[in-house]
């Protein structure tokens, strides 16, 4: 039995991070909420959500079907609300396959609904699939609102959309969200930041701690400095406050 304990700014974020690390979809695991997230007041008393995600052991096909039905019946209310009611069960596997909602269409509808809730009514979405990665390219006059400060809104939407997609995907897939090439511009900015902070670490002879950022952004900085022999990089802390440290090599 393989399991992982994961924290996140929200319960959904913690689950998304755990699923990504385990490389499985939501229907392949059991989820136990150890701690609900708390926003706190004026920044004080805040705490992350914490979940324990356990991969369901392999069973026979007959038992697996029974477990899948049980998993559907036991889905949390907040997830049930986003799932279309199931039609009558059929013994024909092909009919069951057709009744399964398309993961990409479900995600597009989810993003559209979220945009409307943010008073964004001109959202356009294009999708590209490459291997086990699905890219959702968003376009809107209110792109800045979707992105948020330093990509916070976009990152949160990406993690939630990944949950939506992996509810019905046959196998685990990675979801990427981008708005008007923000990811490319952000990558360039992070690579430039990496060089500046590395130079600062060498100049002062002290390690430099960067602000908390998602794992894939930390990886961009790791890669940007991989060929430098005068500094080393590593991550410290726990999600959602995990951050990267640049330290001069002595």
UniProtKB/TrEMBL annotation:
Pfam families in UniProt: Jag_N, KH_KhpA-B, R3H
GO MF term set: RNA binding
Keyword Chaperone: yes
CDD domains per UniProt: KH-II_Jag (cd02414), R3H_jag (cd02644)
Superkingdom field: Bacteria
RNA-binding listed as a keyword: yes
GO cellular component, one term: cytoplasm
GO biological process, one term: cell wall organization
Name this polypeptide is given: RNA-binding protein KhpB
Gene: khpB
